[in-house]
Amino acid sequence: MKKAIRHSGRSNQRRVAMATLVGTTVEWYDYFIYAMAAGLVFSSAFFEPVGQELGLLIAFASVGISFLFRPLGAFLAGHYGDRIGRRAMLVLTLVVMGGATTAVGLLPTYHDAGIIAPIILLCLRILQGLSAGGEWGGAVLMAVEHAPKDRRGRAGAFPQLGAPLGLVMASAMMALMSGVIAPGDAFVEWGWRIPFLFSFVLIILGYIIRRAVDESPVFQEIAEHKQQSSVPVVELFRKHSRLVVIAALVFAACNAAGYMATGGFIQSYAVSNVGLDRTDVLNAVTYGAVIWAAATYLTAIASDRFGRIRVYQIGHVVLAVTIFPLFWLLNTGEISMFYVGLTFFALGLGGTYGAQAALYSEMFPASIRFSGVSISYALGSIVGGAFAPMIAAYLVQQTGTTTSVSFYLLALTAVSLVAVSLIRDRSGINLSINNEAEQAIGALVTDKRPIPATVKEAAVKERV
């Protein structure tokens, strides 16, 4: 008989929810502050010699470079997260991300230090990428593995909320500096640095909260029975490489669409091409992030009732039908129309993001779950969001219209919709290490194999 997971009490589940929410919000705040500054300031502050247009492309490319290092961060965090625990990796990634972000706020510009300034900037962005690659997997497993099976979607919503709430904080801070504290030239000269320096306060808060939570009950079982995989990443790709690829493609559309706003492209385009006020645009994006957060939470809850796959499919359809109207409304030059476009666009983002934590956690076996969810997420980030702002800026420069950007996003949405439809809905599956035989088979609809009675014994012998 398969033992159920020893779930923690409600009070500890609430602490875990708060820890994953605060931690991921801080991490994404750090990440988005860089992306926004890249679109608004960095082309002149760090890449001035190459000119405005090329400097903007390089600035957006520096946003994407971090994504190339996310898989390495995911490999490292996945390996140690599956071997020494989820909580330790959560604390480490938070400190690395916050330290790198704070350091960006202290950097001299190209005018002050020459070529060394953009080089150090890129190095710090790489550290952010390494940290982000390991952050998400640890946060979602802490949340989902602590939760009862009928509340995993709701529990997994809290680390997911970190992205839109991080965007709210980042946009609000940038708007505050741009419109109130350091308007005009002062924002370009020094105002953009304050949001980066503020990260130091946030990481102290996140560190205290994350240190206070218990380790995941699933990992406690794994450690108790000494069933850690010796090389989890190797085992993951040897047995589940196709699953990793499909899981990565599921995330591609949401990530690319989300990085239109969070990666700085919409802010830059709205200000430079459409002529909207910078502070008004930042306020609008802040509003859009609030809608995104609400949609993320509601769709995560819905996935507990209606299933992860159905909710995901509806979310992709909503995203597909809002891609073109977003840019049509933005191009009217009316800030009120931009708000309308962001409202519907954010609903699609939430529909393709809320259930992700629970979906990924239920796809992979317990002993390699951290590696599976982290690497799938990191690879999906590369396919979708890594260079999405740079690609969008290039498409606009070459075609003179945002229609090409909309078709680009629509194509990725179609790919993600097909990918999620290939996954079997396993809502409520026992996540315990004792049920690893069932977890290892049947995550894809194309896998029709029954679970032999000998699979469990074979798995045990393989570990011994």
Automatic annotation (TrEMBL):
<keyword id="KW-1133">Transmembrane helix</keyword>
<dbReference type="InterPro" id="IPR011701">
    <property type="entry name" value="MFS"/>
</dbReference>
<feature type="transmembrane region" description="Helical">
    <location>
        <begin position="281"/>
        <end position="299"/>
    </location>
</feature>
<dbReference type="Pfam" id="PF07690">
    <property type="entry name" value="MFS_1"/>
</dbReference>
<keyword id="KW-0813">Transport</keyword>
<feature type="transmembrane region" description="Helical">
    <location>
        <begin position="372"/>
        <end position="393"/>
    </location>
</feature>
<protein>
    <submittedName>
        <fullName>Putative MFS family arabinose efflux permease</fullName>
    </submittedName>
</protein>
<dbReference type="InterPro" id="IPR036259">
    <property type="entry name" value="MFS_trans_sf"/>
</dbReference>
<feature type="transmembrane region" description="Helical">
    <location>
        <begin position="405"/>
        <end position="423"/>
    </location>
</feature>
<dbReference type="GO" id="GO:0022857">
    <property type="term" value="F:transmembrane transporter activity"/>
</dbReference>
<feature type="transmembrane region" description="Helical">
    <location>
        <begin position="21"/>
        <end position="42"/>
    </location>
</feature>
<feature type="transmembrane region" description="Helical">
    <location>
        <begin position="89"/>
        <end position="109"/>
    </location>
</feature>
<feature type="transmembrane region" description="Helical">
    <location>
        <begin position="336"/>
        <end position="360"/>
    </location>
</feature>
<feature type="transmembrane region" description="Helical">
    <location>
        <begin position="115"/>
        <end position="144"/>
    </location>
</feature>
<keyword id="KW-1003">Cell membrane</keyword>
<feature type="transmembrane region" description="Helical">
    <location>
        <begin position="165"/>
        <end position="184"/>
    </location>
</feature>
<dbReference type="GO" id="GO:0005886">
    <property type="term" value="C:plasma membrane"/>
</dbReference>
<feature type="domain" description="Major facilitator superfamily (MFS) profile">
    <location>
        <begin position="16"/>
        <end position="428"/>
    </location>
</feature>
<keyword id="KW-0472">Membrane</keyword>
<dbReference type="InterPro" id="IPR020846">
    <property type="entry name" value="MFS_dom"/>
</dbReference>
<feature type="transmembrane region" description="Helical">
    <location>
        <begin position="190"/>
        <end position="209"/>
    </location>
</feature>
<feature type="transmembrane region" description="Helical">
    <location>
        <begin position="243"/>
        <end position="261"/>
    </location>
</feature>
<feature type="transmembrane region" description="Helical">
    <location>
        <begin position="311"/>
        <end position="330"/>
    </location>
</feature>
<keyword id="KW-0812">Transmembrane</keyword>
<feature type="transmembrane region" description="Helical">
    <location>
        <begin position="54"/>
        <end position="77"/>
    </location>
</feature>
